[in-house]
Design a protein that fits this description.
Elements lengths: L1 E5 L3 H11 L5 E5 L6 E2 L1 H4 L10 E3 L8 E3 L4 E5 L4 E4 L2 E4 L2 E4 L24 H16 L5 E5 L3 H12 L3 E5 L12 H14 L4
Parallel strand pairs: 1-2, 1-9, 2-5, 10-11
Antiparallel strand pairs: 3-4, 6-7, 7-8
Length: 199
């Protein structure tokens, strides 16, 4: 049986490794990623030296056949083929596990080329290059983070820990309103302000 999994996040890699374990299936993993299997949650801790995000090289996923740097473009269900930029791949079972995309508020979409998102290791590396340029000029970066949800707050905290100046812009009345109750949210806001993070 030929199983093709699209996506190399936690769900895709865990499934591909589990299916390939007993050797009864040919398992391929199609991913646009090139750095290996990494933890997206760790990305928001990548500025203060919190450790690398990459957990495994793609080679370490063997016997899973990994097609890194490859984008799935179309599914031909009638012929059970996944169309890739490099050609076609037959499958008996196809699993889509592409993960999430960064949510960009509609009013900001037209300015997409003027800001960064943090949803991949490539995003983190790009932000790191911007940060390093400022440090090379002996200037501490000043960051504006749009969104006071989990990732926004984690990134703000990590950049602050690294010594950068940070302002968080959040449309809701309090930070992490989906995860924290009002008292906890107020405590986080107070902690941020005490640490020098503007909200």
């Amino acid at each position: 049986m030929r199983v093709v999994v699209v996506g190399s996040g936690l769900a895709g890699v865990t499934l591909a490794e589990g299916l390939a374990r007993d050797g009864s299936r040919q398992v391929a993993l199609v991913t646009a990623e090139t750095h290996g299997y990494y933890s997206r949650p760790r990305l928001s801790h990548g500025f203060s030296g919190g450790g690398g995000a990459v957990l495994k090289s793609f080679e370490a996923l063997a016997p899973v056949r990994v097609m890194a740097g490859t984008r799935a473009e179309r599914i031909d269900r009638a012929n059970q083929m996944l169309e890739l930029a490099e050609g076609r791949m037959p499958f008996d079972v196809l699993v889509l596990a592409p993960g999430s995309a960064a949510r960009i508020p509609p009013p900001l979409a037209q300015f997409r080329d003027q800001f960064f998102t943090l949803n991949s290791l490539d995003d983190l590396l790009a932000l790191g290059r911007v940060r390093q340029k400022a440090l090379d000029r002996r200037r501490r970066p000043r960051w504006a983070i749009v969104g006071g949800g989990l990732i926004g707050c984690e990134v703000a905290s990590d950049l602050n820990k690294a010594g950068d100046r940070v302002t968080v812009f959040h449309r809701e009345a309090r930070l992490l309103e989906l995860q924290l109750d009002e008292a906890e949210s107020h405590a986080l806001d107070k902690h941020f302000r005490y640490s020098g993070i503007e909200v």
